[in-house]
Amino acid sequence: MTRRDLISGLDIGTSKVCAVVAEAGERPRVLGVGVAPCEGVRKGVVANADRTTEAIVAAIAEVERASGVKVEEAAVGVGGDHILGENARSVIAVSRQNGEIREQDAKRVVEAARSIDLPDDRVVLHAVTQGFVIDGERPVRDPRGATGVRLEGHVHMVTGATAAIQAITRCARRAGIRVRRHVILPYASSFAVLSPDEVERGVALIDVGAGTTGIALFSEGAVRSSCILPLGGNHITNDISIGLHTSVADAERLKVRSAHAVPSAVAGESALRVPGAGSEERTVTPETLGSIVAPRITEMLEFAAAELRESEHYDRLGSGIVLTGGTSLLPGIADVAERVFEMPVRIGAPVLLDGLSETVAGPRFAAVIGLVLYGLGSERGERAALVTTVSTKVESISRAVTQVKDWLNDFF
After folding, report:
1. Most buried of 15, 23, 82, 233 (most Cβ within 10 A)?
2. Is 353 in contact with 30 (CB distance < 8 Å)?
3. Would you put residue 355 in left (φ > 0), alpha (ψ -120 to 50) or beta?
4. How far apart are CA 186 and CA 320, in angstroms?
């Protein structure tokens, strides 16, 4: 098997590092999965390089043992509230005298949109094509073959803090992994949990992880807005720890095993044991635990709703809201979300690939499965062809040019 037959995804999260290696084909086949706890990342950003590197090494070692192949490169997920998404537009004159719009015109207008002035501390991660307008009045998705004198391109630009991106890159390299591409986590997750129909009809993906919440809004086949909030499941854990005077570790166990986002749904159930300081132990009702969890869940979802409402496409979400990420497993969270958003909500689990164990097939692993699908360009990952990715400023210009060429070949 040659290396180009394989694709790897690496999700470096606040609570865990997860690696997946898969074999390309008509139906991708997962060869191995590796998961390791991570204590070096805070809110999606590397806070301790040594601990982060150790977690990557452990996850990679596990995936290599499971797959029997050596992993040397991977598509890597990027989180943190330093990620910013904004829509940009550019206009060019059509190059041919007869007005026929060719591939090179589309390339030039996309590159013009990408050529925004950025401060030295920021770098472009994605430039996602949303569509084109010919002569200011004819919106089209594929302008090739049409005629006009002016071509306008609409692009969703995603940028990140250079220092944060470079920190992730360095940790990966220290672990022996070359970063093939950086992909923001909500966009990666979308490849694993959203259907083409949802992306077309309009849908908002909310990926609630341990330290951050990634948001991406899709409509008419393209991403329209994206951001990452510095809120996640760890905030719920901390609230439980403070409210019940127990350790963070015990609070996490209570959250995972017994918490509910709707306190009334667990009224009357058996009392829960809560470890205290030293050997002390007491009991609380599940409803009491829920009364601590519910306000934080509501707050997180309201922040997400406020971000989404900034988009002009918010009222076009024909497919509603999809929640994914580890915190989406909290019972009752979909009910709370439906109340906050006033639209249908479902929990998004990643598509089941051949060879993927059910133990790692839930929402917690949506991002890393999405990274694999993004790289493979499979049926659910075809939207990857709409992205031009520039990983960091330290990568060579030749790689950037190659990616632009690949994007054009796939898109057209």
Report:
1. 233
2. yes
3. left
4. 16
CA 360 to CA 45: how far, in whole Å? 23
Yes or no: say if 331 and 261 are a contact pair by the CB < 8 Å rule. yes
Using CA atoms, how far apart are residues 17 and 271, in angstroms rounded to an integer?
34
Per residue in 157-208, pLDDT tens?
999 999 999 999 999 999 999 999 999 999 999 999 999 999 999 999 999 9
How far is residue 8's CA from residue 21's CA, in Å, rounded to a whole number? 4
Q: Please, are residues 236 and 297 in contact by the beta-carbon 8 Å criterion?
A: yes
Do 7 and 76 form a contact (C-beta atoms < 8 A)? no
Question: Domains, the chain, ranges and CATH?
Answer: 84-159 (3.30.1490.110), 233-293 (3.90.640.10)
Looking up tokens 């041919």 gives 96
In the numeric block, the tokens 């009702």 are attached to: 285
**Does pLDDT of 341 surpass 80?**
yes
Cα–Cα distance for residue pair 285/254, rounded to 1 Å? 12
Q: How confident is the model at residue 405 (pLDDT cuts 50, 70, 90)?
A: very low
Which range, 85-89, 268-272, 305-309, has the best average confidence (pLDDT)? 305-309
Confidence of residue 56 (pLDDT cuts 50, 70, 90): very high
The token pair at 103 is 């591939």
The whole-chain average pLDDT of the chain stands at 87
pLDDT digits (tens, 9 = 90+) for 4-14: 588 899 999 99
d(CA 314, CA 284): 40
Which of 253-291 are b and which e, b meaning 16 or more Cβ less than 10 Å from the residue's Cβ? ebbeebbbbbbeebeeeeebebbeeeeeeeebbbbbbbe
Burial of residue 145 (CB within 10 Å: 0-12, 13-18, 19+) is exposed
- pLDDT interval class at 361 (50, 70, 90): confident
Cβ partners under 8 Å of residue 264, min gap 6: 287, 290
- Tell me which amino acid residue 267 is: A
8 Å CB contact between 402 and 396: no
Which of 172, 183, 177, 69 lies closest to 126 in space, CA to CA?
A: 183
Q: Let me know: does 184 contact 77? Beta carbons within 8 Å.
A: yes
